[in-house]
Amino acid sequence: MVKTATSGHRRRGRMTDAERTGQIVSAAMRSFAEHGFAGTTSKMLARSAGVSEALIFKHFPTKRALYHAIIQRKISEPSEGLFPEAAMRDEDDRQVLCSIASTLLNYIEADPTFMRILLFSTLEKESLSPMFFRVRVKSVQSFLRRYLSRRMKRRGMKRFNPGIAARAFLGMIIHHLMLKHVFGIPLGKTSRQELLSTWVALFLEGVSR
């Protein structure tokens, strides 16, 4: 019985491969956000993760493979609120916009480092960053563009270029997040509810008939 308990304790105390991989990916996100893709060395990654360089290379033979794992992690996160199908069917303009804005705000606020990683990788012309934009950002923009286009055709909104309108709405949110998490500019103590209601009201007042 003692032997079994000891073995069980060892199993519980030792990380699985999946847990170790997750630990390395989380550490890599911190390093890439601080130093960029090009400026992060394997030694930095090992120190940040608290493991050896050899273990880093065992799980990820290249930095590109590690960066790919970060993108895959972010793409696989839940995204239902970014595509509010029920509100779209009901043509509930306010709920569609609130859902997208709130989810995007939650998404970045929960992990601000990812915005810095995307900016670093774009500036460094790292080819993997466009994958995230295609799968997540562009898909949200396309969803909103289709919704706005339908509402405009049904005369529920003024006629504008729906693609430009979709980018304009998302741009308000992204601008706020960049000021806060990339440039570190103090934005006061505005509540989430005031942010959301202001963004939605500004947009709807501009496009409403």
Overall description:
The chain is elongated. It is 75% helix and 0% strand. Helix 2 packs across helix 3, helix 3 (42-49) crosses helix 4 and helix 7 runs parallel beside helix 10. The chain is mainly α. The chain has helices at 2-13, 17-39, 42-49, 53-59, 63-75, 85-89, 93-109, 113-123, 129-153, 162-181, 192-207. The longest helix is centred in the C-terminal third of the chain and has 25 residues, at 129-153. It folds into two domains: 2-75, Orthogonal Bundle (Arc Repressor Mutant, subunit A); 80-207, Orthogonal Bundle (Tetracycline Repressor, domain 2).
CATH architecture of the largest domain: Orthogonal Bundle
For the record, the count of structural domains works out to 2
Strand content: under 5%
Q: Cα-atom Rg, whole angstroms?
A: 21 Å
Estimated helix fraction = over 70%
- SSE class: mainly alpha
The shape is elongated
CATH fold type of the largest domain: Tetracycline Repressor, domain 2
Biggest beta sheet attributes = none
Provide the CATH top-level class of the largest domain.
Mainly Alpha
